[in-house]
Specification:
Order of helices and strands: HEEEEEE
Structural class: mainly beta
Distance between the termini: 36 Å
Number of domains: 1
C-alpha cells in the first residue's frame, strides 16, 4: 500500500493545472504548473497537522521532488 511505501507523507485531494513528468511512481509538476492542495481534505484521514498552515504567499517548499512556491492561501468557508 502507498502508506507503507511513503510512511512520512501526507496525501491531499487537489488539482494539477499544467504539465507534469511521470517517472515510475512519481509525478513531478513542470515549471509553471499550478498545484492546488485542499489541506482540509486528506485522502487518508489521520494526522490533521499540515505545516503549510504557517505558509504565506511567496514562501518556498518542497512538493515531492519539485520545488514549489505558495501563490495564494485561501480557506474554504462552510455555511
Amino acid at each position: 500500500m502507498i502508506l507503507k511505501e511513503y510512511p512520512n507523507s501526507m496525501f491531499y485531494i487537489g488539482l494539477l493545472k499544467g504539465s507534469y513528468e511521470l517517472n515510475k511512481n512519481t509525478i513531478t509538476p513542470v515549471r509553471g504548473s499550478t498545484v492546488i492542495m485542499y489541506t482540509n481534505k486528506q485522502f487518508f484521514p489521520g494526522n490533521q497537522f499540515f505545516p503549510g498552515d504557517q505558509f504565506s504567499p511567496d514562501d518556498p517548499f518542497d512538493l515531492g521532488n519539485a520545488k514549489a512556491k505558495v501563490i495564494s492561501k485561501k480557506r474554504e468557508s462552510w455555511c
